[in-house]
Amino acid sequence: MKRRRVVTTPEADEDARRIDEWWMENRGAAPNLFLEELADALALLEMEAGVGVRQPSRAIPGLRRYLLRSTRYHLYFVHGDDAVVVVGIWGATRRTTPRFADRVASTSAAFAAAGDMTTPGFVNRNGQEVMRVVDVPGTEQPQRVYELRCRSCAHRYGSRGSDNFDRQCPACQDGAPGMPLA
Ligand SMILES: [Zn+2]
Question: In which band, very low, low, confident or very high, does the pLDDT at 83 lie, cut at 50, 70 and 90?
Fold first, then answer.
């Protein structure tokens, strides 16, 4: 079975820290229950990325949520080929969710840091495929640029790795102009 790397966004870390503090102050009988349940859930995500149910989100397509049954929190996550990114953790009994639109950038960065989305062959939801990695001269040091190819129109252009997740083609999808490849 394929193991995925589970990584968290800074926002999810902050959610966990806040919830853990609350739990320790208010649930003296089981102060560690939240962290224990969270650790179990993260271990599960490493093995089975498809757990939980879909959470419709315009900002983060493919988002899912998984219920921590004892403590009643939802773990929100999205999986790529090689990594699972935990986007947030939120009270399941609240009528709200995190503002996912505010977490798109950190989700992309987490995927990129995990090495997913930057591997040649990765294709994002807009049909933009990672072809190769190029080091182009930068002002201070060589910059790592990813050559993407649009599957619709075959246009090739450069992208920062953290953009690969939701990059749109500059030629046929009104995406931002590509970075130079040389
Ligand atoms: Zn295109």
Answer: confident
Do 130 and 99 share a domain, yes or no?
Answer: no
Q: Tell me the pLDDT of the chain averaged across its residues.
A: 90
Q: Is 164 helix (H, G, I), strand (E, B) or coil?
A: coil
The tens digit of pLDDT for each residue in 44-65 reads 999 986 799 999 998 888 899 9
149 C-alpha to ligand 1 centroid (Å) = 8
Instruction: Point out which residues pair with 88 in neighbouring strands.
Output: 76
Q: Say if residue 23 is in the same domain as residue 95.
A: yes
Angle at 90 between CA 35 and CA 87, to 5 degrees: 85
Output the CA 156–ligand 1 centroid distance in Å: 8
What separation in Å is there between the alpha carbon of 54 and the centre of ligand 1? 29
